[in-house]
Model the fold of this input.
Amino acid sequence: MNLPEMPEMPVDAWGWVVLVSLLIGGCFVFVGSFGLLRLNNTMARMHAPSKATTVGVGGVLIASIFYFYGVVDEPYRVFPAQDLLIVFFLFLTAPVSAHFMAKAYLHKHSPQESDLPQPHNGSGWATFKSRA
Amino acid sequence: MIQLAILFCYIAVCLSLLMNIWRLYIGPNVVDRIMAADTLVINSIVLLILYGIQTKSTMYFETALLLAMFSFISTVAYCRFLMRGDIIE
Done:
């Protein structure tokens, strides 16, 4: 399959991009899971994997895109469109699932609604309305 | 050089998987366990991508996409069930 030529860069430069993205990705994946293990309450633990692991997955996927498009030898060279799809999908769904988990936690184990700050328009907290 | 970086990432991801399994085991409440399972699937996506880079095969990327979708849907379903007592009302 014929692909357009990569922009003019020395061959090793794409290798360095892949290398740095892989290292950043590995470090952030580790930091995210370490935060999930070591932080001290559930709301704090929620934020470690939902941010750091997203960056980690993004780094590894960017490394794989550049590897298959710029570094690997000719018979294997493709543009991995699945990787772009995974990046978009994870970046869209990580905040949504973190929000769902935060709402479930508030719903199951929260202080009373009177201990929380009230919204300005007097509408209350929707997650407490559903419990009543 | 890239092989060394892939090896480093393998070690980091495997340690992360162990930590996630430990959190899944000790998690004091159910939301922690949902979160640990979600992160476990995301880390296994990273493991699949790394294996794809190492073997120069793009076949595993579709598996990774399916895993990402299943992880999101199962997390949302668990949380819906906790919040509402039902998944599709």
Summary: Residues 30-55 of chain B form the longest helix (26 residues). The mean pLDDT of chain B is 90. Chain B touches chain A through 51 residues (CB under 8 Å). Chain B has one domain: 2-84.
